[in-house]
Design a protein that fits this description.
Length: about 170
């Protein structure tokens, strides 16, 4: 296996202060602390192998975060020159150090369908000829299939929809 080329890391004084604050934090997520340490050590020309040994990570994982930083360091520098506030820059850096959003599985039900299910849940079960005092996920599942709101849905999905809260 070939060793990836070392990626040069540059951080400004302000970025270094922010990264040091994150790396010493006891309240931030450990992955953020770990990633801030990778960037700080990388900016001091510490090799990926040595960073990995110090933080107990694989070299490839260190490389991923060094690469991620190198992709945005120009943009960060530009924003800093334009006068971005420390608070905004701190948020931006934390965003970079966080995991990227993953695609995941596409939603099986559209929002309109979920709303229709929740509307049925607001009705009294007796109005639908159900001999129960309140909707259970199983009863509600049977009712929305009977009303042809959906062709098929799991009891678990109905239960999740019932637990949803509108912000």
């Amino acid at each position: 296996m070939s060793v990836p080329k070392t990626i040069e890391i540059k951080v400004s004084k302000q970025q270094k202060e922010i990264l040091e604050e994150i790396s010493k934090s006891r309240t931030k997520a450990s992955r953020l602390v770990e990633r801030a340490k990778i960037i700080l050590l990388g900016s001091e020309q510490v090799s990926g192998k040595e960073i990995g040994e110090r933080i107990e990570l694989s070299r490839s994982r260190v490389w991923v975060w060094r690469k991620r930083w190198s992709e945005v360091q120009g943009e960060l520098e530009k924003q800093e020159q334009e006068g971005i506030s420390i608070k905004e820059e701190s948020k931006r850096i934390e965003g970079i150090l966080n995991d990227r959003a993953r695609a995941g599985c596409p939603a099986k039900f559209e929002v309109e369908t979920i709303l229709k299910i929740l509307l049925v849940a607001q009705e009294e079960p007796e109005e639908s000829g159900r001999l129960v005092s309140h909707w259970t996920p199983r009863e509600l599942r049977q009712e929305v299939i009977k009303r042809e709101i959906v062709d098929e849905i799991s009891t678990r999905s109905v239960g999740r929809f019932l637990k949803m809260r509108v912000a």
